[in-house]
Amino acid sequence: MDVKEFYERLAAAVSLEGEDAAIRFQESYESAAGAGSKVSPPTYPVEERGTPYLFEERRLPDGTRQAVLLDSRQSQANRCEEALARVVDEGKVYIPHLVLEVTTHDRRLRITSLTAPHRSRDAYFRDAEDAKGTPFDKTQPGQELAACTPEDATALYRYAPTDLVYGVLNSHRRLRLAAKFPRVYTSEMVGWDPEEGKHAAGRFDLITSGRKVVTVVNGTTWEIDNPKGKKKKLSELGLGAIPPSTKRKKEGKPPEPVPGGVTVAGIERLATLSFSALARVRLGSDSAVARAGRIVLAALALLGDRLAFDGPGLFLRSGCDLVKVDGEVSWVQRGGSTQRLDLDREAALALFTFALKRAEDAGLAWDSKPIVLRPQRNLQQAIDEAFFAGIDESPED
Fold this sequence. Notes:
- The protein has 10 helices and 23 strands.
- The chain is α+β, with helices and mostly antiparallel strands.
- It has a domain of 64 residues.
- The strands form 7 sheets. Strands 1, 2, 3, 9, 19, 20, 21 and 22 form an 8-stranded antiparallel β-sheet that branches. The protein has a 4-stranded mixed β-sheet with strand order 5-4-23-6. A 3-stranded antiparallel β-sheet has the order 13-12-14, with no helix packed on it.
- A hairpin with a 2-residue loop joins strand 20 and strand 21.
- The longest helix has 23 residues.
- It is globular.
- The protein starts with a helix and ends in a 10-residue tail after the last helix.
- The relative contact order is 0.21.
């Protein structure tokens, strides 16, 4: 299928005019270390589960099967955004986004709406200002984004289109009816038939293991013998020995198991681009213009997926290096039938470029430059104070 045919089929799909309901990605992986080696799932508070991992039973056509979550929908979306941010930084494509530039303690930091937890609606941007000192929410783009609703998402399309792909909620501005845009693309990774492993964590110290307790003075320095100050174990300061244990102790809480990884029978990534969800995105009153914009969003979702997951391997986190075994991209049609779609990074990029040009020709253009902001005084102070601050170990009120 050439790019024009692909575009026309998407045009029908995002308007719910054809037989296509979604595009589905199904990819299988294995541990890079081979069969029998452990992989490390993400960890969560143990609570009543007794394990830091998320296990669950999933119903399949031939019965139920146990699974462990290896990468959540939120994390998978972040991986797509990171991949898109990388090609934007490399100058290969341009995607509108917000940028917060921070200088603190002679270091420069950069946060964008492609990396901020709440995307363009993040509190970092709420508490930012432009080069003239105007609070972002009072600038023209800020006001347009604040007024953006599901009835007309044109401002999000213009300034932060990835928000419409991966979802965003304007939850930090104390609005009675906060605008919410659900994700149109979802992806997750699971491991099948997991067996939880065990791990003993400890620390061997070559020199200072003889001293057990010291005194911390002023929260920053420690002394051997000082009657004043807070007593701490040397191991809590990164020195001294810690005996190996399969449990880790937390003050005031029962011991928790040290995460020991899992072995699994197989690893699968399951992702979809929903045309029903895309059809709900409204972009102005002109149906032809809105249609062209929805195709761009579909192409953006496909590009993000291929940039993040079309490689021969995948690094999820330390202890979770994966190799792709097999994969298929399919059109999912009425009745559940599927049709294979050949889609690699190059094809996704060609579609994205073509769709963007067609939307521009229809009169729906992206903002040509990122919105560059700096912290307001209060946010700058908070960043300055927190940059080298230690962890507050005092109990919460």
